[in-house]
Write a structure and sequence with these properties.
This protein is of the alpha/beta class. Helix content is 47%, strand content 14%. Strand 2, helix 2 and strand 3 form a beta-alpha-beta unit. 46% of the residues are buried. Bound molecules: nicotinamide-adenine-dinucleotide.
């Protein structure tokens, strides 16, 4: 399938995991890429892999939570690569080793999680929306999570941030629908990225047992849905939050 032939896709947090897999999937479907991540070496590796699909790739090492960095990054992308057809707001993470039950959690950790999940999504979206409105086309794919759906112990700030991403997705979708810009979210369940390596084997086994399909997602499973949402196959979908979690949360 070459659903993204000649389109420019920006992926944030593209050096690893779901962002990397999505960038490569977009490239395999014909897209050119602009990739942003903190990790320059990782970005270079992904760029090399994407170029093997024939993609033109521009990389920017920078912090997606920093407004000045993001404004500069998107100026550079506009000048070097042109109109952004697809923005995938993938950057995000939970508090990881600093995660705790809410009663003992710290505002500093909440701010970190809200910044990396929610502010980074708003900052990058703000950079592409004016041109998408004007061009009357474009796709924004936000990476949320299934975490906030049922609620889970020990990740309250992450659940709040990701439900924030879902609320943002719906509201922006309504604003941009008259301009034929689609805004959707993909909500992964536990996915085999480096995040899993940090979880104890007992908890991994417990989570796996709670998944109806009985196994964790590969990053490519999420990338496949992101590519669909980034393509014209999803032209009649906007404001949706597509849960990709092996059936753990059923609506
Ligand atoms: N892996 C899962 O189980 C899972 C489940 C649900 C949702 N998600 C979401 O999917 C997205 C990707 O997660 P992943 O598991 O692939 O993570 P990952 O840690 O494997 O990759 C994230 C990438 O983002 C980059 N990054 C982090 N902070 C950044 C910043 N401030 N600026 C620029 N780059 C930054 C990292 O360097 C890394 O390359 C996140 O939004 C995460 O919340 C993941």
């Amino acid at each position: 399938m070459q659903r993204l032939q000649g389109r420019l896709a920006v992926v944030t947090g593209a050096a690893n995991g779901i962002g990397r897999a999505s960038a490569l999937r977009f490239a395999s479907e014909g897209a050119n890429l602009a990739l942003i991540d903190l990790e320059k070496d990782g970005l270079d590796r992904v760029a090399g892999e994407a170029r093997r699909h024939g993609a033109k790739v521009h990389t920017i090492a920078g912090d997606c939570t920093d407004e000045a960095t993001i404004v500069k990054a998107f100026d550079e992308i506009r000048q070097t690569c042109g109109f952004v057809d697809v923005l995938m707001n993938n950057v995000g993470q939970s508090a990881r080793e600093r995660a705790s039950e809410f009663y003992k959690s710290e505002p500093e950790v909440w701010r970190f999680v809200l910044d990396v999940c929610l502010m980074a999504t708003l900052l990058a979206s703000r950079q592409v929306v004016p041109a998408m409105r004007e061009a009357r086309k474009g796709k924004i794919v936000n990476v949320a999570s299934n975490a906030g759906m049922a609620g889970e112990v020990g990740i309250s700030e992450y659940a709040a941030a990701k439900m924030g991403v879902i609320g943002f997705t719906r509201s922006l979708a309504r604003e941009l629908a008259p301009f034929h810009v689609n805004v959707n979210a993909v909500c992964p369940g536990v996915t085999k990225t480096r995040v899993i390596e940090r979880i104890s084997p007992e908890i991994v086994a417990k989570i796996e047992a709670s998944i109806p399909l009985g196994f964790f997602a590969e990053p490519e499973d999420i990338a496949a849905v992101a590519a669909f949402l980034a393509s014209d196959d999803a032209r009649y979908m906007t404001g949706q939050s597509v849960v990709v979690d092996g059936g753990r949360w059923m609506v």
